[in-house]
């Protein structure tokens, strides 16, 4: 199996710290625990990276969530309309239901992508944040 460790894809998919990729950024790993959806650790317990670099840092993730949502909607469209041959109106309903069901995942993916724009993986980072 190919290891994704060290790639941004690894951090984006797992929600792990973008710098060391050892620990999750989230207090609750399951995005469907809705009340804890936005609860994140202040700092990485492994490398001490501060996740919320500035106040309302993660508002920027909203801009990421649009293209992420469109990608998911496009996949649903291709599957429903082109592969399964459903009518346009049924396809539309499928997309709306999909968007609602996947919202927690889209929100987390968007945060993960957003923070990975600003922070890069460091292979040999230590507890105090020095390489
Ligand atoms: Zn870390």
Question: Could you walk me through the main structural features you see in this protein, from its secondary elements to its overall organization?
Answer:
The chain is mainly α. The chain is 47% helix and 0% strand. The longest helix is centred in the last third of the chain and has 31 residues. The radius of gyration is 17 Å and the shape is elongated.
For the structure shown, list the relevant keywords.
single chain, 131 residues, mainly alpha, 3 helices, binds zinc ion
Walk me through the topology.
Layout: H1 8-14, H2 61-83, H3 88-118
The chain binds zinc ion.
Zinc ion binds next to loops.
Ions, cofactors and other ligands present here are: zinc ion
Low-confidence stretches are: none
Beta-strand segment tally:
0
Compute the separation of the termini in Å: 28 Å
How does the helix and strand content classify structurally? mainly alpha
In short:
With 131 residues, the chain is mainly alpha-helical.
């Amino acid at each position: 199996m190919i290891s994704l460790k060290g790639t941004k894809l690894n951090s984006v998919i797992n929600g792990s710290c973008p710098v060391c990729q050892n620990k999750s950024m989230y207090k609750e790993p399951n995005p469907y625990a809705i009340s804890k959806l936005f609860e994140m650790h202040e700092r990485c317990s492994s490398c001490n990276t501060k996740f919320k670099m500035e106040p309302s840092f993660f508002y920027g993730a909203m801009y990421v969530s649009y293209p992420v949502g469109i990608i998911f909607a496009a996949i649903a469209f291709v599957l429903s309309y082109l592969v399964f041959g459903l009518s346009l109106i049924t396809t539309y309903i499928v997309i709306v239901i999909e968007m609602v069901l996947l919202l927690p995942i889209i929100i987390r993916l968007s945060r993960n992508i957003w923070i990975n724009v600003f922070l890069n993986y460091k292979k040999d980072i230590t507890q105090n944040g020095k390489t």
